[in-house]
Amino acid sequence: MSDTTETEENEAPKIVLPDDTPVDLQKELRLSNVQEVLDQLDKELIGLKPVKTRIRETAALLLVDRVRNKMDLSASSPTLHMSFTGNPGTGKTTVALRMAEILHRLDYVRTGQLVTVTRDDLVGQYIGHTAPKTKDVIKKAMGGVLFIDEAYYLYKPENERDYGAESIEILLQVMENNRDDLVVVLAGYKDKMDTFFYSNPGMRSRIAHHIGFPDYSAEELMAIAKLMLAEQNYRLSEEAAKALFEYTKRRMTMIHFANARSVRNALDRARLRQANRLFNSAGKAVTKVDLMTIEAEDILASRVFQEGSLDLDGDEGADVEPVVES
Amino acid sequence: MMTNYGNRVTQGQFSFLPDLTDEEITAQIKYALDNKWAVNVEYSDDPHPRNTYWEMYGMPMFDMEDPAGILMEINECRKTFPNCYIRVMASDATRGTESVKMSYIVNRPSVEPGFNLVREERNSRSQGYTILPYACNKPEGERS
Amino acid sequence: MADNEVKGKERYKSGVISYKSMGYWQPDYEPINTDVIAMFRLVPAKGVDPEEVAAGVAGESSTATWTVVWTDRLTACELYRAKCYKCDLVPNTGPGTETEAQYFIYIAYDMDLFEPGSIANVTASIIGNVFGMKALKSLRLEDMHFPVAYLKTFDGPATGIIVERERMDKFGRPLLGATTKPKLGLSGRNYGRVVYEALKGGLDFVKDDENINSQPFMHWRDRFLYCMEAVNKASAATGEIKGHYLNVTAATMDQMIERAEFAKELGSVIIMIDLVIGYTAIQSMAKWCRANDMILHLHRAGNSTYSRQKNHGMNFRVICQWMRMAGVDHIHAGTVVGKLEGDPAMIHGFYDVLRETKNEVNLENGIFLEQDWASMNKVMPVASGGIHAGQMHQLIHHLGEDVVLQFGGGTIGHPQGIQAGATANRVALEVMIQARNEGRDYLAEGPEILQKAAKTCAPLKAALDTWKDITFNYESTDTADFVPSATTSN
């Protein structure tokens, strides 16, 4: 057997493209179908201008990188790990889902799946418990995006024997060695995240994209409320809309405010009150319109108006711990 | 040294082919995952053909989406037991099968000494046969 | 009820009336879930009403005789009477075609007409008398359906595909075998040589041929002893479990049991019988194998005498059904590409009956009646006869992975020797399974995949060069009556 001719046959011929080779980025964008995901993001998320801009920029960077790669201009695969910082209810999980989709369409990850975990999924309670737990999560997330919510809880400086450090160690290894297999997104409050990165320079140096999620304005929250209600075939009466706007403004100043999630909770309770109201109005004929309409009284009954405080048995802020985004 | 084709134990699906590369192993794992089979990694220093229960390197991996995690496990097993036989198996839980669907070797000891065939004389020309792996001459734990 | 059925007192008046009027023709009858159903292809004798012959077949295969008998009235005769409920003209036969009219007739039998767990009894009824009736010109049993309640009276295969694989420690690829050649004449010592070489080279099984029993040139005990020496030596040389189908076929049941016991004593994992020993002997051997952890290989010797012609006899698929119930673990079921009879669609039908947990109606593959196999073990089909390594892609495409591929000539006839022949087959098999799993279009790329593997495997290269394009392209006699409308079959 002539081995030499063999290898020559198998080696791809080296073609160096001329410097003026034309590049059609629009065509690349079309082929990747990324625009579709960006449009979807625009539609399903109100506001968040800076976030959307960052996502768009990131997508553009990755697309260009891909084209450069095709022309042999890239030296190595780019670091894609990210951090999403912001208060609860600002759309971090939703954006992560779309990000996974974008990375998938650009062939940076193979499956486009998003696996969402918190400290409890990664860190065990006994010696030898943590490594298998973390590895198990990593294996399941391979080929996609691993979203670690409130990532800073992995690091507990007050307890030097905390097993979280072991988990971080394994994550760091994978983030470095399996860059083609897994993208890690760390998420949480901005200030806590900053502290976390300060004490874990290894993590900080492996994160390429930091994206901050601002709080919503009262107007944006109103728009979100309307979108949520429309999805469930409800609507606000004119008076109710005013009441909700007032409610939102008050609620934003109170503790445990969780942006879109607080709005969703308020609407859930309003629906409950609406149902009660309809039920107690025995004798009066109820119409389809009644079933669909939230009235001002359904909102004004909230403790936020009554006492200017939160109701601890089911109303706002029942959770004493910070609200966990899920 | 073994004198058969390849001078090696030929258990598993691909023992007559050149050792599988990581890329080729990934393709086989993908086939298993596409079929919704659970994949597990096993190792042993005893290649006796009827040694059914090799040691499990961790539990079977269920609900996996991508082969990379399993390849990572294989490579860790190789690092931990470089001189053992390591095989990858896939299990199908479908009714009517509920058994192994794939089994292939991904690591071998550097030397494969083979087997001793021991004959036992019985009545009227019958022979009793026992196969002893040379690899198992030493006690467990002192072999590699 | 048929219009012309005679009811009440008139029905049992002494004398001769038509089978139809005796109640064996019931076009409105709907089979119930305790009915065994048989489907025949019927050519009536010249000028005879097809429905009357169909009723005759129903009658003669169940309770009827040629004349009315009063003793019928001592029984629940309406239950026991088989009912022909459908009589359809076969497509492309009859007026306007070149073929004389044929009919597909469907007959329902209450399952209490058959002894539980007895293939002999089923066959005595279904194919016992009716094939010689003067009123018909020819008859072929095409398909059967057994209710789960009756199926459960059979043990089925003792081992089955799943357990055979676990016992042999061989997964995810077809098994490889070969039949020792020449079929006749080798001494025990020389015979064992062939077995050893083939197993060491990479085959999983070697096989006795159907007509190797105990002849002047080789006593059966010699064969068993030398073959087991070969099997164990090959096992030690490869680290794999190996086997040789020791044919225990003999003149009497006692002799067969004696030979099977000896095979067991020597540690064989598998024994073999021929179809010609008969259904009772097959079931007896299956029970023996179940009691002794033995895989049972069945060679279908003789089947073509009655299964090959399309107009008379029986479809081989029904034999497959009966043999799964009788409890064999292996059965020869065709190769598609080899030297023996076999239309691809028909062979897919045989394989489905042997290997599926449920058969849906599939007219293209000749499956007319649905069959739920009720967790009965699956039978491993064996593909044997005129196949070689160069056809590996086609074999895997047509036959799948749960099959024994037997390369007799394709192993022993290899120019570099038997070991090299076996190695060529094993390398071809493994590289093709690898390509299939990788998602490649291995059927189209097959020859290329084999050529590439041959570059690092001299035995495979020699095999490919020797048998380059050997195929057996003759027209099949047993073909489907229904073809998918979008494409044409050749």
Can you give me a brief rundown of this structure?
The complex is a heterotrimer of chains A (326), B (144) and C (490). Chain A has 326 residues and is of the alpha/beta class. Chain A has 16 helices and 7 strands.
Structural class call of chain B reads alpha+beta
Total E-strand runs of chain B: 6
Which word captures the global form of chain B?
globular
Task: Output the CATH homologous superfamily of the domain at 22-112 in chain B.
Answer: Ribulose bisphosphate carboxylase, small subunit
Described by the principal axes of the CA atoms, the overall outline of chain C is globular
Strand content of chain B: 25-35%
Q: Determine the CATH topology of the domain at 22-112 in chain B.
A: Ribulose 1,5 Bisphosphate Carboxylase/Oxygenase
H/E element string of chain B? HEEHEEEE
Distance between the termini of chain C: 42 Å
Mean pLDDT of chain C: 92
CATH class of the domain at 22-112 in chain B equals Alpha Beta
The CATH architecture name of the domain at 22-112 in chain B reads 2-Layer Sandwich
- What integer value in Å does the Rg of chain B equal? 17 Å
Given as residue ranges, the uncertain stretches of chain B (5+ residues, pLDDT < 50) are none
Oligomerization state: heterotrimer
Total of helices of chain B: 2
Helix content bin of chain B: 10-25%
Give a verbal description of the structure.
The complex is a heterotrimer of chains A (326), B (144) and C (490). Chain A is an alpha/beta fold and 326 residues long. Chain A has helices at residues 3-10, 25-32, 34-44, 49-70, 92-105, 119-122, 130-141, 164-177, 190-199, 201-206, 218-231, 238-252, 259-280, 288-292, 296-300, 303-306, and strands at residues 82-86, 114-117, 145-149, 183-188, 209-213, 235-236, 293-294. In chain A, strand 3, helix 8 (164-177) and strand 4 form a beta-alpha-beta unit. The model of chain A is unreliable at 1-9 and 312-326 (pLDDT under 50). With 144 residues, chain B is of the alpha+beta class. Chain B has a domain at 22-112: Ribulose 1,5 Bisphosphate Carboxylase/Oxygenase (2-Layer Sandwich), CATH 3.30.190. Chain B is 18% helix and 28% strand. In chain B, the strands form two sheets. Chain B has a four-stranded antiparallel β-sheet with strand order 2-1-3-4. Chain B has a two-stranded antiparallel sheet with strand order 5-6. The longest helix of chain B has 13 residues, at 22-34. Chain B starts with 21 loop residues before the first helix and ends in an 11-residue tail after the last strand. The mean pLDDT of chain B is 95. In chain C, strands 5-15-14-11-9-8-7-6 form an eight-stranded parallel β-sheet. In chain C, strands 2-3-1-4-10 form a five-stranded mixed β-sheet. Chains in contact: A-B, B-C. The B-C interface holds B 2-5, 9-11, 13-18, 24, 27-28, 30-31, 47-50, 52, 89-90, 95-104, 114-117, 125-129, 131, 133 and C 162, 165-166, 169, 171-173, 200-202, 225, 228-229, 232-233, 235-241, 265-267, 357, 375, 378, 419, 423, 426-427, 430-431, 433-434, 437-439, 453, 456, 459.
